[in-house]
Amino acid sequence: MKIKIIITLGFFVFLLGGILEADPALIKQLSELYKAKLTSPAYQDWKQVNHRTMEGQSFEEERQIKKVISQMTKQVNVPEGKPVSVIPIKTSNFPNVDGKIQEGEWEGALEIDIGYGDVYTPIYLLSDSKRLYVAADVIQGKTRKTSFFFKYHIDLTPFLRREQVNLYPGSTQLQSSRLVYQKEFGISFYWNYDSHIYRNARGAGSRASGHQQYELVIDLSEANIHRDVPFSSFIQIGTDSKKMVLSNGREYQKPMFLGLLGSNIRPHWFVISDSYISDPNNVVAKEVIEHPHISKINPGRKVIDYEKYVVKGAYTIFYFYTDWCKPCHVLGPRLENLAKSREDVYVRKIDCDVIDSPENMANDIAGYPTVTIFGKNGQILHDKVIYLEPIEKILDEMF
User: Fold this and answer.
1) pTM
2) What number is the average pLDDT over the span 180-186?
């Protein structure tokens, strides 16, 4: 994968795959505008208001910020080989944004299942060329707490991580914000949310159907999403965190999701269009044989069917890794050499970056590298062992 490195504003930012060919003059202009807004007395006074009663920002600096971001989002390019999901444009019969997904209300919308395993969790997207409508039908959300996040313009500049809108159960107020690296502007915080950036967006959540549903609509000009221009996105349906125990015995709360599409590292790409032609190929579950004892598994969004890949009479090691994990670059070659040198060892590799990292959620992977090892009788010997040192200790003892 090609990695572009942009050096600007006093620190490094890595943009994977050449997402943005940013104009340095625009980045500088945006930086100056943001510093002027965040440090202005009017903005500081406004921040003291109860956020539940705030209206969308009306500062002149924010208006100018949106104008510059609009120019920048027109320059975004889709990384080579990355498919783009086309959001259709309708001319009539638009959804009533009340948090209740009615039969036929989202007819003609783009529908994507972002759930895990066999649980169907669809999201719907459509446009009228001026607005973008989005809905989520969280069938698992009958009793569990949930939240819906629609994030976009991922890593637009070194100091703007993303824009987003989000909803919570029973909420009738859509929250909008940008994640900003405020230390760049001489402010004591590092990453922080610049909230209430939209005035024309709205949304609602409801359990009227017996489970959680969300609907929202945003103004395209306000969100700087352009017709026929792809934009990067990351969608989450969150729920209660889960207590995890690491191999060293330490406990921590892992964020859990009922639905996920894309990530900050590998965003999903959309375009609002009635003429855009995208790559129709989608990533599906498959196995690629790299060596008689080594294969690379792509399970899609499903929990891995271990029995399908376990070799009876041999040790089978399932290895979860990512390209950005430095310890993985140490463990990976060792596992491959082990499989190549021994007749009784097989390695199944799962690259958790391939399809925007849903594998770590579907298979309860808490970090990288992680291995699960099956014995010669098909029994689990070591389940989801995390981090290089504990894994290497096990390998030393076994082999």
Assistant:
1) 0.71
2) 76
